């Protein structure tokens, strides 16, 4: 039998197994009922499917010997520049209207674009992408979790991330379960039209499996409110009572039923946790210096909000570079450079003139107070944890710290705000969006943030109480049912809170046969 192409094969990793270590440790500690452990140990459903799409024509740079034959090819003049979109990898998307005006010279499918050089026209093909949706658990409510469009995704990774959503929704105390999914591809290699067509096809396949009361996707790495809008349309077009389906995805643009504050909610929630960490030490984040890895949705919002709290961003690293300024980077200007600059095809901090470029690896040893990993998983390895010069690691990304990294952080006395509370602001405001959609309401940003602050800080305090073995009860706080009679690391304490809340559903409702 023919081997499946490399991109479609599942890599042999065991991220899910590793990620469940904390689950098992917490389950042992609280004596989780054996049947509940079995229910939570594996996802409810693992969906793998394929989506196909028609790609557009591309212009691929032609260099070296192959180019020599076209030395005499005159340059073409294409007045309609909007019909050509540059991609980060040097290729260009070529729309048919580009060739309908101007002065065009094509020889054997090769074209010279002014001073940009020679390109071979690659006819648009049909492409197939591997797609996933893992639904981990729904004991507390509909499945809920983001969609990731990225090259390095796998069933193993989505199993880990979906389980993490189950813990996170329980910790945030929102009435959802856990799910995660996405497509194996790099969205930067595609035009807007192609992304729309791939997203629509994904929802076409997924429609049977999701719904506002069944499973509710949201943005994650490589997806955004625009992708959510396409998914909403594909799900709801032609349905009776279309407006009732608005809550099928969260993270929508506010003009089409998204919530105020959702775009920044994950960073906002992380900043509230950091603020609470300082408050518990009788301090505020004002004057604190932080470094942030990943300057996408989460990293840039967290940086902006922490700066508003008076903190100073001294270094930023992303997939393509790192910048440093001990006096503080102008985060607003860096956001403009990364997110509002059409020339910056990689959407990277690299090339930002307002700070000093540094080697990406040197980022980890920058002297600061807080490190915010807000990119992908496994960034803070044992080696990185040895080099960090900070007091606090506030996790914006999902699973940014490896087991070894965790051990080293603990040995070095560096505090951790674990991801399942640190980045729970996103799913908390997704819940507010879902309620607003159901009630046909629109809350102000102030209202959203006030609720978010209350929710995140109160759940964070519960986790701190569990970690420090501090049972406390007041009118609006009660940790007495969660503390275990001994001190625990924060990550384990967070998992204890999640499992106790999930277990209650199984213990009180029992099991259908
Ligand atoms: P994004 O796609 O907007 O940004 C990702 C950032 O990470 C980019 O700046 C990219 O350059 C950087 N990056 C990618 N690979 C890297 C590498 N190898 N080294 C350094 N930097 C790298 O994604 P996002 O939505 O900001 O999500 C970031 C993290 O936060 C992810 O782990 C995601 O699962 C998690 N998260 C996101 C949300 C949300 O609401 N968006 C909610 C909870 C958790």
From TrEMBL:
A matching Pfam family: ELFV_dehydrog_N
UniProt xrefs under Gene3D superfamilies: Leucine Dehydrogenase, chain A, domain 1, NAD(P)-binding Rossmann-like Domain
Coiled coil: none
Record keywords: Oxidoreductase
Residue ranges annotated for the Glutamate/phenylalanine/leucine/valine/L-tryptophan dehydrogenase C-terminal domain, each copy included: 259-510
Keyword Membrane applies: no
InterPro entries registered for this protein in UniProt: Aminoacid_DH-like_N_sf, Glu/Leu/Phe/Val/Trp_DH, Glu/Leu/Phe/Val/Trp_DH_C, Glu/Leu/Phe/Val/Trp_DH_dimer, Glu/Leu/Phe/Val_DH_AS, NAD(P)-bd_dom_sf, NAD_bind_Glu_DH
Tree of life domain: Bacteria
GO molecular function: glutamate dehydrogenase (NAD+) activity
GO biological process, one term: L-glutamate catabolic process
Keyword Oxidoreductase in annotation: yes
Sequence similarity: Belongs to the Glu/Leu/Phe/Val dehydrogenases family.
Protein name as catalogued: Amino acid dehydrogenase
Species: Sorangium cellulosum
Source species taxonomy: Bacteria, Pseudomonadati, Myxococcota, Polyangia, Polyangiales
